[in-house]
Design goal:
Elements: E1 4-9, H1 15-26, E2 31-36, H2 47-55, H3 70-75, E3 78-81, H4 84-93, E4 101-103, H5 121-144
Parallel strand pairs: 1-2, 1-3, 3-4
Helix pairs in contact: 1-5, 2-5
Amino acid sequence: MFNSILVVCVGNICRSPTGERLLQQLLPGKDITSAGVGALVGHPMDELAAEIVVQHGLDPSGHVARQLTPDICKQADIILTMSNRNIEEICQISPESRGKAMLYGRWIGDKEIPDPYRRELIVYEQAFELLDEGARAWLQALQRS
C-alpha cells in the first residue's frame, strides 16, 4: 500500500501543490507532499493557482515551494508527475526512483498536465480540472490495490 505520495512538477507553485491539496482531501491519513525539479524555493503557491484552489474549497495556505532531492524521493512510496519529462528529471536526480515515478494523469489516459504558469486563467482552470480528474482516478486505483 502507498502511504507516502509525492507530487512533482517544475516550479512547485502551481500544479504539484494543487495536486497535493486534492489528494490530501481524498486520501486523509496519507502523507502527501510536493516538490519541484526546478522549484522556486521558498515561494508560496502561485496567486491564480491559489485562487482556483480556494474556489474549490481547498486551502492553499502554508505551501512553500521546495526543490526535489534524492532524500525526498527516497521517502516517497510513489511519485506522481505532471509530465514524462518530469519522470526523466526525477530519474536524473534519483535514479533508484524510476520504478515509482508515474504520471499523475496515468489513470485518465496517461495525460500530461500542462503548465499554466504565467498564462491565462482558463489554462489554470483546465489544469485544475485535469488534476482533479487525475486525483479521483488515483483514489479509485489505490482503493483497488
